[in-house]
Amino acid sequence: MTVLIIAEYNNNQLESSTISTINAAKLIENDIHLMICGSNLKNLILNIHKLDTVSKIIIIENDNYFYISAETMTKEILNIYKKYEYILFASTSFGKDIAPRLAALLDVSPISNVIDIKSPNIFLRQIYSGKFLIEVEINEPIKILTICTSSFSSHINYDNDNIFLEYLNHKFEPYPYKNLINKSIVSNEKNFSNSNIIVSGGYGIGSAENFNNLIQKLAKKLNGAAGASKAAVDAGYADNNLQIGQTGKTVSPDIYIAIGISGAIQHIVGMKQSKIIIAINQDPEANIFKIADYGMIGDLFEIIPLIIEKI
Q1: Record keywords: Electron transport included (predicted)?
Q2: Residues 249, 270: contact at Cβ < 8 Å?
Q3: 170-178 long-range contacts, Cβ below 8 Å, gap at least 24?
Q4: What is the pLDDT of residues 241-260, one digit of tens each?
């Protein structure tokens, strides 16, 4: 039984979601292959060529793959899928785009949002926005899974001297559409994947100015990243790329500080795997306190400036 993991990367490093997926795969099988598609992969390969746990890295490099579509990625997987019994994706927008396409073409049922692997064919997954857990047994010839990465470690070593690099060259066949605009978001702020502390603001923060002066400032003081609830993003207080929750990012930092966040299930499902949750809210009945390890009831506009001042 060999596992194939479809990698995600950024700035010549693997995304933490891919590392978590590798750690999940160890619960299935020790023979793990990593597939990387893209352009200008030399520096990435230099950085990960001793990746622990993985026995083979499959590299598909093409100048046309700087922005690779889900359709093209699916086609590349179809070129090699017969060697594998398991194909794993991180449960990100990237993975959620490709996994169902691949499953439909292979006529198998995918399993999404896996949070634990009980055995090679029994998986625990979230349903209804994380309100319930269900144990699923699957006997498909090829098992396609998306992994809820906050449930698995994002740490891995780079001391593997026995990894095999396999370069594949497939003919590029473009789909009948093209990208008109490719826009990268450039920010000097820390992102979620490399932050042990996340300071997140909700609708109670009141304005974009308050978000910058309180949430962003506290995050910088703590050498962490700033996040936001959907309500704060919808109100225009924070950028879309900062949204945490069911329709945003899923995070699992060491410390998650929720400020002015009521605790709607759509937000909780994206951060409840955090090791320590600290909630600050003036409403003692706010749902966020039900999952918080530490809570402070009070006016955030009085509390946060004092915290910033004392740090």
Answers
A1: yes
A2: yes
A3: 170/60, 170/62, 170/76, 170/79, 172/62, 172/64, 172/65, 172/72, 173/75, 174/64, 174/72, 175/69, 175/71, 175/72
A4: 899 988 888 888 899 999 99
- pLDDT tier, 181 (very low <50, low <70, confident <90, very high otherwise): low
CA–CA dist 146, 100 (Å, integer)? 10
Torsion angle of the four alpha carbons 178, 103, 52, 249, in this order, in degrees rounded to the nearest 10: 60
Asked if 68 and 35 count as a contact pair (C-beta separation under 8 A), the reply is no
pTM of the model: 0.77
* Cβ pair 230, 237 in contact under 8 A: no
| Rama region for 68: left / alpha / beta (φ>0; ψ in -120 to 50; rest) | beta
* Best CATH choice for the domain 192-310 from the list 3.40.50.1220, 3.40.50.1780, 3.30.360.10, 2.60.120.10: 3.40.50.1220
Binding site for FAD, residues?
243-247, 260-267, 281
The CATH code of the domain at 3-168 is 3.40.50.620
Which residues participate in the annotated binding site? 243-247, 260-267, 281
